Amino acid sequence: MSQLLRPYHSQLFKADQRGSDSGTTATCLTTFNSENTYAELKTGFGGLKFLNDIFLKSEEVLTFTCDNQMVEAIIPIAGSLIYRDHTGNEELIKSEQVKYIFSEGHSTYTLYNPYQTETVNYLHIGFEKGNSLPTDFPKLHSLQLNQKNVLVSLNSGDTPGLTSARIGIFEGRYKETFLLKNTDNGVFAYIINGAFEVENRLMEYRDGLSLWNTKQVEFEALSEHAIILFLEVPLTKQ
Prior knowledge:
Elements: E1 10-13, E2 19-22, E3 26-30, E4 48-56, E5 61-66, E6 70-78, E7 81-85, E8 90-93, E9 97-102, E10 107-112, E11 120-128, E12 140-142, E13 152-153, E14 164-170, E15 175-179, E16 186-193, E17 196-198, E18 201-203, E19 208-211, E20 216-221, E21 226-233
Antiparallel strand pairs: 1-19, 2-3, 3-4, 4-11, 5-10, 6-9, 6-11, 7-8, 7-10, 9-12, 13-14, 14-21, 15-20, 16-19, 16-21, 17-18, 17-20
């Protein structure tokens, strides 16, 4: 059994307690531990290893190394990014899309902000890969966010390391429930915009909440155009 199964059922990660790494090109706010910050209870959550909120300045580029044990997801929140990998492949990642990045060995890729004056905000999420990757797994997935008060999928098919991922835009006072596919898993809720009450806990802009030993997560939007993300992940190594 993973040591991440703690003797209580939830943990709140407040946005104002995140780690911060600011440079000339970008600002990275880390929900879990990073190279520059450490706290005993911020070592990740099961298969979810990192969730970073990145603000990339105009016409700047960041270089990353993809570990062969990880599957990474890039989710633009404001603006678009240009992705380039070590083989020269290039792809535009737009808002309302998610880009999955994985490699059977160590490889590098870059993310470029093509705007002359605008900062791009995106989420960078890393999952423990677990079993081998399916050959038909879609690497760029479009989100259907044209309808409010509905949780839509961030992953089609079998995403390695990620049992289920849902995102939705909700009107104020709307109530809904996220159902786990596997009750042995945990779920991580993350507020992208606005405010929610999640399992009787007030959560605001960029707060996170991990929950386990539960079959479902009840939540209510407390503001208009409130956006919430749910990540269902294994709590033990696959």
